[in-house]
Amino acid sequence: MPRPRSLTTTQIATAALAVLDREGLDALSMRTVAKELGMGTMSLYRYVSDRDELEGLVVDLVLQAIDVTVPRGPAGERLSVLADRVRIAVSRHPAVVPLLLMHRHHVPSSIRWGETMLTVLTDAGLTGKRRAIAFRTIVGYVFGALQVEHFGALSGAGTAALADLPPEEFPILSETAAQARSIPPEEEFRHGFDILLRGLGL
User: Fold this and answer.
1) 103 part of a folded domain
2) 73, 130, 178, 185: which could form a disulfide with 77 (CB 3.0–4.6 Å)?
3) What's the pLDDT tens digit per position in 66-98?
4) How many domains would you assign to the chain?
5) Same domain, residue pair 43 and 98
């Protein structure tokens, strides 16, 4: 008899990510990933307990693309580079965005990125509660901005609807929305992060 097939977590995560990229988040299941791997669903349970674990493997795989070495330069520039590395990695697999907040606390690649961020904040002289709040603020911006871009991009229908509001009733909102429609996602992300850094004094 042939020996049972042996799989690595990377192979399983790669198959799950392929399903996610091709068919979207709703299609991700033990059955579809098993099919992607060319095996029966019950055989996959030998390696992964449920969809929640699958999701964590996918998030970890996507975030593994982030370079977690500490950049050179002033603290603000280093933090900007680290934040942008997350945006670039995630933008290659936008369907993973809804999973980020649920799994970022426990996947190794996210934890390593967090340690690098905290290293830069510490080098900048932040300690104790100030460092904790600064880190939380940065994490909230990075992952929150990715969610906003995914579910309501400036180029999308929501901004267009605001731009079409009657200017006599909503002059500033309609004008701002009309201008916002032409802002590329990377410019929105980076300029927003610059504002955050100024608020942190970095």
Assistant:
1) yes
2) 73
3) 999 999 999 999 999 999 999 999 999 999 999
4) 2
5) no
